[in-house]
Amino acid sequence: MSWLLTEDHLDDLARGAAVLGTGGGGDPYVGRLLVRQAIREFGPVTVLDPSEVDDGALVVPTAQMGAPTVVHEKIPSGAEPVTALRALEDHLGARADATMPIECGGINSMIPLVVAARTGLPVVDADGMGRAFPELQMETFGVYGITGSPMAVAGERGESAVIDTGADNRRMEWLARGVTIRLGGVAHIAEYSMSGADVKRTAIPRTLSLAHTVGSAIREAREHHTDPVAQLADRLGDTLYGHLRVLFRGKISDVERRTEAGFARGRASAVSFDGEHRLDVEFQNEHLVALVDGEVRCVVPDLVCVLDSELAEPITTESLRYGQRVTAIGISTPAIMRTPEALAVFGPAAFGLPYDFRPVESTPQVLHPDGDRTPR
Amino acid sequence: MSWLLTEDHLDDLARGAAVLGTGGGGDPYVGRLLVRQAIREFGPVTVLDPSEVDDGALVVPTAQMGAPTVVHEKIPSGAEPVTALRALEDHLGARADATMPIECGGINSMIPLVVAARTGLPVVDADGMGRAFPELQMETFGVYGITGSPMAVAGERGESAVIDTGADNRRMEWLARGVTIRLGGVAHIAEYSMSGADVKRTAIPRTLSLAHTVGSAIREAREHHTDPVAQLADRLGDTLYGHLRVLFRGKISDVERRTEAGFARGRASAVSFDGEHRLDVEFQNEHLVALVDGEVRCVVPDLVCVLDSELAEPITTESLRYGQRVTAIGISTPAIMRTPEALAVFGPAAFGLPYDFRPVESTPQVLHPDGDRTPR
After folding, report:
1. Is residue A221 in a domain?
2. Which residue numbers delimit the S-Me-THD N-terminal domain (chains A, B) (predicted)?
3. Residues of A in contact with B175 (CB under 8 A)
4. Rounded alpha-carbon distances, angstroms, from residue A143 to A54, A270, B9
5. Pairing between strand B325-331 and B244-260?
6. In chain A, which residues touch B (CB < 8 A)?
7. CB-closest option in B87, B171, B183 to A159
8. What's the distance, CA A56 to chain centroid?
9. What is the residue range of B140's domain?
């Protein structure tokens, strides 16, 4: 059923989206403020269940693109993604019937809501990554045959570029990234325009609702002084993201981060409180892999989420700091993201990682003497 | 009057265009081969005098964009500029009635001829630089109010980007350069689409004919064993480019060249044969300024051309080599290129040069003891 998204949903939604963003997808504080302003100015947003979208409807996903390290300092006005949408509509010679997120994340779950508030379009409760990924070809839309092209990239001065690379979504990413770098490291996009029938076939369904579920589970646990990670594991059990593993608890000991070729790349390390164990997380905008004592415990496309140990607040890659006390969790992904064709596009090898994919729920549970435990 | 351009024109045209290209605008050998192939395959090209273009006609200039250092190694098939033209036409929802060069140069006087041969469109005998300049905002079209946007950039795999920066032609250049870099350092473009009336108002007229005149003057002098520079000066006297000055004769002693941010930048030096005098030329794709013994003798927008001393063959910046015996000449530009609004866009200050513009014909004639002379 469709539902009306109001200001009251935003705290939970942004927090949950940032958890699903696996360290990327943008800062939830900025994302929340953007939607709040848009809803106050233009009114609430209708969220459509994917089953409600007409097969013949034109759905145009919208998003922000760029290095989180830059996004952090370059806040959009909210008009930019609408510029991208309009540029693509003009190019297509057709008007969108709805917009949709391309990924989950503190900002990228929110941008389509801003577009929806400003344009009066509904938002489809689904996306093309089921988490956040750093590159535009890494979408289930593309994995299952939708071309990203033509796509529009828009800047803050109303400028736009409509890029058409035919069926080559990787080439599209390459050119769009070049434009984004020239636009200052962050831009807004409209891409993978598709029919309602294609949404049903290729999108990860109900990820906005999922983000809200994740965010509210954490909030409720805080209110009831129970363990938010346990609460979250319990809630996820009923969703397509059924398995949660606690990977590590400890203190951030090192962060290496650089903005390179339009991405934030680097790694973070943590040591357990007893000093006996070590966590290493590698990221390209998003967390790609978590190793504990040198062994892979969770790897793309499964979700590696780094949470603040006390409140379970998600920490994005650009906010990781020495000394933070963190809990790293792994969350399993839906089957549609684990097929051979999906793994070819956003599995470990697609990032140059020398590991095979292994579902997080099948990795061994490791209980460390300093109080690690598995909630399920 | 319109005329039919055939293979027989190409040697003179390419040579003359390379002289007017002031070190840039692409390699004339490659340009000549491209047009020869296109004419052999598709037939000769109709060249329209600007006075013959209907005021209401749609004229879409086409060109190659990139660093000459890369162009030199990455030869186009000829299809790329047509891809750019078609992408822009599709975006505009209109078909071009003619194409036109954006600048003079060994390749960029030729690309519109390739487009014309392949599409059957006529080419307008005019351009937007009256020489070659490195950046897309440096066109008389823009100086006199035409917007470059929307423009199309195309790559060798059929991919394209349609860039729209409204009235900001400098921003257009910035984004198009970013796309060009991502396309490997060279791309093909269609931009500054305009009416026939605007062609008459803003273009430098008859520069294809001029290139042919320049090239044939040099050839004829060679055939008659007379001084090609003197012959060239004589022929230019009857054109909008009325003044030619010999700036220097000597031997290239140093070349510093780097490919940087999508441009070939650097400087070349020469010493006179008696070792007493020194020439310094700075370039950004094209020659920007010639200093003799530290004094400005010719500066943008006037033309600094470096010719092989024996045959007066133009030498492009990417072909400058230690030991070449060269004659550097300066050529005056038409009045339309020397107005305050034109100098603001492509005068010395636009390139960060700390010199005022001074017409080449008003600089002092310097006769060096080793046989320099002024042919007029």
Report:
1. no
2. 9-164
3. 159, 161, 179, 182-183
4. 22, 34, 52
5. antiparallel
6. 87, 91, 157-166, 168, 171, 174-175, 177-179, 181-183
7. B171
8. 27
9. 3-205
User: Which residues of chain A lie closer than 8 angstroms to B183, CB-CB?
Assistant: 175
The answer to whether residues B164 and B259 belong to one domain is: no
| CB nearest to B161's CB, from A158, A161, A166 | A161
Query: From the CA of A96, how many Å to the nearest CA of chain B?
Result: 18
Q: Decide if B159 and A165 are in contact by the 8 Å CB cutoff.
A: yes
Q: Is there a single domain that holds both residue B230 and residue B191?
A: no
B contacts of A137 (beta carbons < 8 Å): none
Distance from CA of B205 to the nearest CA of A (A): 31
CA distance B195 to B35: 26
> Which domain CATH number covers A93?
3.40.1610.10
Domain contains B372: no
Measured between CA atoms, the residue of chain B closest to residue A261 is B182
Nearest to B159 among A91, A175, A183 (CB): A175
Residues A168 and A231 in one domain: no
What is the DSSP secondary-structure string of B26-71?
--HHHHHHHHHHHHHHH--EEEE-GGGS-TT-EEEEEEEEE-HHHH
Query: Who among A161, A164, A179 is closest to B159 (CB)?
Result: A164
**Under an 8 A CB cutoff, do B166 and A159 touch?**
yes
| Contact present, B348 and B300 (Cβ < 8 Å) | yes
Residues A194 and A254 in one domain: no
Interface test with B, best of A80, A90, A163 (most B CBs within 10 A): A163
Beta bridge partners of A331: A244, A303
Walk along chain B (376 residues) and give the pLDDT tens digit of each residue. Answer: 899 999 999 999 999 999 999 999 888 899 999 999 999 999 999 999 999 999 999 999 999 999 877 877 889 999 999 999 999 999 999 999 999 999 999 999 999 999 999 999 999 999 999 999 999 999 999 999 999 999 999 999 999 999 999 999 999 999 999 999 999 999 999 999 999 999 999 999 999 999 999 999 999 999 999 999 999 999 999 999 999 999 999 999 999 999 888 888 999 999 999 999 999 999 999 999 999 999 999 999 999 999 999 999 999 998 999 999 999 999 999 999 999 999 999 999 999 999 999 999 998 766 554 444 443 3
The single-letter code of the amino acid at A283 is F
How close does chain B come to A142, measured CA to CA in Å?
17
Q: Is the dihedral of CA B285, B287, B288, B294 positive or negative?
A: positive
- Would you call A166 and B175 a contact, using CB atoms and an 8 Å cutoff? no
In a domain, A251, yes or no: yes
- For residue B285, give the CATH number of its domain: 2.40.390.10
**Whole-angstrom distance, CA of residue A25 vs CA of residue A19:** 10
Same domain, B163 and B284: no
Same domain, A161 and A277: no
Closest by CA to B136, choosing from B262, B304, B306, B283, is B262
